Amino acid sequence: MAKPVILSQHLPLRWLGVLPFFAFAFLFLILPTLYIVIGAFRTPQGGFTFDNIIGLNTPTILNAYWLSIKISFWSALLGCVIGFAMAAAITVGNTAKGLRNPLMTFSGVASNFAGVPLAFAFIATVGPAGIITLYLRTEFGINLRAYGWNLLSAWGLIVTYLFFQIPLMILIITPALDGLKREWREAAAILGATGPQYWRMIGFPILLPSILGTMALLFANAFGAVATAIALTGPQLNIAPILLFSQIRGDVLGNPNLGYALAFGMIVITGLANAVYIWLRARSERWLK
Amino acid sequence: MSRIFAWGALLTGITFFLLPLYGMTDFSLRMRRGVYSLDAYRAVLADPQFQATFGYSVIMALFTIAFGILLVVPTAYWVRLKMPELRPVVEFITLLPLVIPAIVIVFGYIRLYNTSSWLPLTGSAMGTNILLMFGYATLALPYMYRAVDTGLRTIDVGTLTEAAQSLGAGWGTILSRIILPNVLGAVLSGAFLTFAIVIGEFTMAALLNRPAFGPYMQILGANRAYEPSALAVIAFAITWACMGLIQLVTRFSKHERAKA
Amino acid sequence: MSFLTLTHLEKTFGQNRVVKDFSLDIDRGEFISLLGPSGCGKTTVLRMIAGFEQPTAGGITIDGKDVTALAANSRNIGMMFQAYALFPNMTVADNVAFGLKVKGAPKAEREARVAEMLALIGLADLGGRYPFQLSGGQQQRVALARALAPRPSVLLLDEPLSALDAKVRVSLRNQIRQIQQDLGITTIFVTHDQEEAMSISDRIVVMNGGVADQVGAPFEIYNRPTTKFVANFVGTLNTFEVEVADAASGRVMLAGQGLTLPNAPLAARTGEKLSVALRPEALRLGRLPDAEALLTAQVTDVHFMGSVIRVKADLAGAAVSLDTFNRPDTPPPVVGSAVEVSLSGRDFILLQA
């Protein structure tokens, strides 16, 4: 007992233990982010200005943000819905319990299989010269392109992102589904509730905070993804992270401080998504401590 | 009714997962016209650029893992033992990289640590390597911290520390001889995950202009037809291996604990 | 005619026959306990009545209607669970109103019924709270109110008291019994606690290995157990070996003293050994005029438990427990001392194997 007591009397010594972490986090996480945020409100000479933020108001940049938000939102929403359905299938009831372990393991792999190679996999499969594309054309005369399918487009990106979004949802929501007690289901049933009534009034509300949290995470995940988009479409698809990538590489906007504003906008959007999540979560979690 | 729905969801999802895997594998074997062959793999593996960039990324991953362990294990331990009031703050910080896009962080690095700044890391190749390693450590922070913290939860940190202190051990000994071996499974899980993240990372390496595996894959993808699929298969195999190793160490450390 | 009838119920899980040929008739308004050790099948019987498990064979009739094939949500049964099972995302009032809500009862009716139920369990002010803000005992009372609110025809209680502290357990047990009697609702209570079962029930079904060993009122089960299992499971038992002196009249010898057993004529023949048992309270300290025999015992241990003093002693070669009431003017016996013990043949219990 003696030593810890003596140590805690010297208050600064306690802080020494966490100093490396805070120094690292400050220098390589917080300070760079702050630098971008402050840069967004500065003139090249160092004065304060709103011009950079106002400068974002061009059709190109607004379209880039809007397309990014749409892609992120839809890939997050579809990822949540499909992932939830699959997770429910392997947990609730007695369907397909044997698939649980293989699916969880696969989800661990697939949720980390992102970036450039993921794009290659989809190009090889449903790209313009992909295996499935060609197969459908030669064997069935179905031209995917004629049906509006184009991998090198926003929807192509959404479908590709789903390859890691769905597994991520499965990984996060499965433990939450396990947390639904059998007694709740039974209590609801004996009180006369049907299966859908149980899900609407009990199961779903209890899971809602987890679902919302995952949704916000998936949104940020898709919103910041650069590698898959660049490998899939090259620099031409006009979404925020690709625009920022080009800006950092070659100042395509012709104004370095506009680049800060563009990055700042991205932080604001992912931040807002998380704020919405925290707000909704607080509402749906009144019944927890 | 709900059974049909469950199976429908599962089959749809599994088909969606399997198709691209099948597609890339099939495509990667079609380099030689008319027959399946491993030519694409031969071409990739023989490419000196592949060897150089892959080697570079492996080394970067190893350094990132070493740095991550040195940073995260003592911090997580210290917060659990002495400063539980800091837990929310530390957890919040470790989750930030999931919210702030990597491209924004590296953008900050480029402007903050350029040649004319107080810490001109991007001025030299070694400096940029170090900066990239810090960037990777940031990306891996959420996973590493969570893994280690979960590992620490299963052991009684306070009692172990007091027992070691009563036997005259110092902080270094406690961390390296007592705490680390007890959370080794968790640390290894974090390490393999870090490896999987770093090995194919594109954005940071590309923007810092380092010859890493991620940018190499992207350039190859823009110029070749069959080799990218071979690379995708290789990358998928590496990811699978990392996750498999995580499962293995988790099972092993659980087994060890059960024996103890 | 009985209100709830179980006929030849069977339940098999894989190779495991958990409930074997279980039949029971329960009257309207009766309070029945299913008592037994874990794994005896009592919970499975309850879950079959609730509709959570489908019987492998046999039938269940409630109020003349065969419900065997009916889903749980159309049986109109109320149930309390061991772990409360309140819906954590709903307030106390919403929990209680749940059954009426899913049946489509109008809001005014629901509110009136919730108020009535909360008043019944004595938690009228806590309707707006969430379950996590309540103590275990309060949560279980809410669970009772929730189960009763839709006016079920049968109330099932699945070890509802086992998660609670000893004090709360007793007071809630009494409250459940009180409410059950006031409402006159047919109730089946599953427990492994024999004291609980005896204090609360009209009849007890002692279960062992998937079958009902004995069915009877608590007094009967305790004083006239028909099997060795029931005798051992319900209450404490002292067993002795006696020698049959005269099988026809039930005369036996214990440590040189003659006793007359109540079950004459005995199945055993004269001269054979016989195994008999006595409840601790049938061994009485001191020399009592109405006793048939008087023996001397060596005190080995004394537990002072308040109103009762439990003495362990060696008596006629057997280690026995005997209970005596505390009296302020009489100090408890001293360990190592010899005491006189009075006993009578009519108190003996003859056990089937």
Work out the helix count of chain A. 14
CA-based shape of chain A: globular
Instruction: State the oligomer.
Output: heterotrimer
Which parts of chain C are unreliable, with pLDDT below 50 for 5 consecutive residues or more?
Answer: none
Residue runs with pLDDT of under 50 for 5 or more positions of chain A: 1-8
Find the CATH superfamily of chain A: MetI-like
| Integer-rounded radius of gyration of chain C | 25 Å
Helix/strand structural class of chain A: mainly alpha
The total of beta strands of chain C comes to 20
User: What would you call the structural class of chain C?
Assistant: alpha+beta
Q: Could you tell me which chain pair has the largest interface and how many residues each side has?
A: A-B, 85 and 85 residues
Query: Quick one: biggest sheet of chain A?
Result: none
Q: Radius of gyration of chain A over alpha carbons? A: 24 Å
Please provide the ordered H/E string of secondary-structure elements of chain C: EEEHEEEHHHEHEHEEHHEEEEEEEEEE
Which CATH C-level class of chain A is it?
Mainly Alpha
- In CATH, the architecture of the largest domain in chain C is 3-Layer(aba) Sandwich
Outline the structure in words:
The complex is a heterotrimer of chains A (289), B (260) and C (353). With 289 residues, chain A is mainly α. Chain A has helices spanning 2-9, 11-16, 19-39, 51-55, 59-91, 100-110, 115-126, 131-140, 154-178, 182-190, 195-223, 227-233, 240-250, 256-284. Chain B has 260 residues and is mostly helical. Chain B is globular. By secondary structure, chain C is of the alpha+beta class. Chain C folds into two domains: 4-230, Rossmann fold, CATH 3.40.50; 238-345, RNA polymerase II/Efflux pump adaptor protein, barrel-sandwich hybrid domain (OB fold (Dihydrolipoamide Acetyltransferase, E2P), Beta Barrel), CATH 2.40.50.100. A six-stranded mixed β-sheet of chain C has the order 6-7-8-3-9-10, sandwiched between helices. Chain A: Pfam families: BPD_transp_1 (PF00528). Chain A: The chain crosses the membrane at residues 15-38, 71-93, 113-136, 148-177, 197-219, 226-246, 258-280. Chain A: Belongs to the binding-protein-dependent transport system permease family. CysTW subfamily. Chain A: It comes from Pseudotabrizicola sediminis.
